[in-house]
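User: Can you write out an input/output pair for a complex, sequences first and structure second?

Assistant: Here is one pair. Inputs:
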Amino acid sequence: MGEIIAILLIVGIVGGAIYYIVRAKKKGVKCIGCPDSTNCKSANCQHCTCHHEEDK
Amino acid sequence: MTLFDADILTKYTVDSIRTEDEGIDTFLFSLGCYEGEPIEVVSRNKNGCIVAIKDSRYSIDLDLARAISVR
Amino acid sequence: MSIRIALAGNPNSGKTTMFNALTGSSERVGNWAGVTVDSKQSLVKKRYTNGLDVVAVDLPGAYSMSAYTSEESITSTYVRENNPDVIINIVDSTNLSRSLFFTTQLLELGVPVVVALNKVDVNEKKQTIIDIPQLSRLLNCPVVETISTVSKGLELLISTAVSLLGTKKTSPYEQASMDGEDKDAMIEADKDRFDFVNDIVRRVETKRPRIDNNLQDKIDAILTNRWVGIPIFALVMFLVFGISQAWLGPWLADLLAGWLEAGQSLVADALAGSSGQLDIWSSILVDGIIGGLIAVVGFLPLVMVMYFLIALLEDCGYMSRASVILDPIFKKVGLSGKSIIPFIIGTGCAVPGVMACRTIRDDKERKATAMLTPFMPCGAKLPVIALFAGVFFGDSPWVGTIMYFVGIAIIILGALLVKLITGVKNKKSYFIIELPEYKSPSLLGACKSMLSRGWAYIVKAGTVILVCNFVVHLMQTFDWSFQVVGEGAESTSILATIASPIAYIIAPFIGVVAWQMAAATVTGFIAKENLVGTLAVCYGVTNFINVDDMILESGASEVAAIFAITKVAGLAFLAFNLFSPPCFAAIGAMSAEIKDKRWFWAGIGMQFSIGYAVAFLIYFVGTLITGGVFGEIWMPILGWIILLGIVAVYTILILKNRVKKVG
């Protein structure tokens, strides 16, 4: 009995984590959880309009 | 003389800026450091000095200090 | 369509603080120029907009529209090309003349402008009086007093901005049209503009005569003095690391780990059933998932305290002074004081640290700094350091602190190598950095920063690390025929067999072939915290914080026996993971910032080689000193071969550069 609960919990927890990661990646988050991530230029720029300008 | 050998805590006026680097010249300009404007050395050490330009403080290195002439 | 308001202004004028206050974000704020490097957008809180949809864009600080640094070109490009509906020009009221230069340029753009006269509280203290109505008249635009640190004046600011939608005002100053190529004409035009600005300032501002050599100047003279300044900097860093790694941090972590473990026991008991033993899947849940999670989250207090202290340091204005002190040292190795900004940001996370390299003008300096930033132990590496400090060195406060200083030393060494391999004759480099006024750091701001970063840590632990721990535990539990691995036959598990080849490569500085260590190193590339999680799963340990408990639980007479490696090996392994290429995210950031493929791979190569070399040297020398045993004979031999190979490659590269210079 205990084992079935354990398996269900595992599926739930791990599944939830994977779902979260997939959803975040779709939104363009480069590093999961990082507060700077949506603005990081290391991801593909989705919101920002700045250009990669070389310094003069 | 340049900022390199100017006295500290003495009001000077910028004479000329010779950096051969247009970018730095423009930057200094936007801070209010250009010919005819007041400037003052607040303190100095072996590697550079701290200057006061228009109520702000900036730390500059020796090369830059030598490039700014004052009178 | 929402209304778009751009926040523009000088560096350090309070833009980002205002942005955070308006939108509820917690973007990074620091009391030194160069902190905001990108534009950021967010919805303004409804209570300031009267229900309207308003988006605020926080632009990097700029002194003028003619771009000198990349921050300024972002600003001028954005404003010219994106046509925001309104511009809020945040003006530092304590430095009117410099601020208004940019203001007059903004006013010429044809976009409605509201001036937010910020930091009025500081002016009050200094007894500086500004005639606001007169200023507004002379600029021909509304002026609103604000104090962004306490969110004062924001409603009026936004409502004024919104009321300007679609209006057009004549600019008070029109620059005469001229040839953009004619430098002298441009300079003359700028001088004229400054004269105009100075005239305005004269008419609206009444200042108390400035005291030169005031207290702040005296402090600065001391802090930037190279004899006193460097020890002070070292002391400050020691305190930061000490408090977070050795004193307050671990104490809090102990409490937290205690609670978490109690929770874990509850789950274990509930699932154990009558036999008192956990069956396979229950074990995977309790030991793998929960246990791995506890191991990582247990270090959360150390991370949060560190972020808190760094936030305080940044806010008070000390960082620019530190930059000044380090500039001469950095100059000797081909960097400059500007590089300290990415390095300090890198103590939080290497990704924004590498991004911050964009403010460095010199191309080579920028690439070198981007390659070197990951050597600074980041927040994710903290648990790793704490783990090894706890397991092998009795929680000594020195371990963490030494690792940070070793990181700094490696950065200097690495920069020197870069300079020797690619260096050109020393051209003049001009270093100038603003020294903002000291302010007492905002405790609230530091708390917010700490909490947001702490939450990020938890989220990362609960997702990426959790999945990794799960996969690792799975791979460790089953062998290739998907049978459960029996006691004593652990090396037949999927994980062990995959990790073995790598275990042989790193054996020279560990002294044994440990697939667990190899597996941990590999998972460390996904996230450095995984090192802790993977080791926890592989060795079946949960609480790394309270080492005494660990001894009791496992019955080992000596803590390190669990890992079955010597203290020296532990230190070497730690060094390898700290100073080799960082996680994939940081590698991605490096690639984006460095752009040049050759430099990028050179950077990775340098990180691997230095990490390996340092680790092996620590192990070899340390084992000699402590009179230990080297493990099997092929290990030190392999280690020396690799080490000498690394040295040979570097020597060849340096000589090639010498020849190039002469020839």
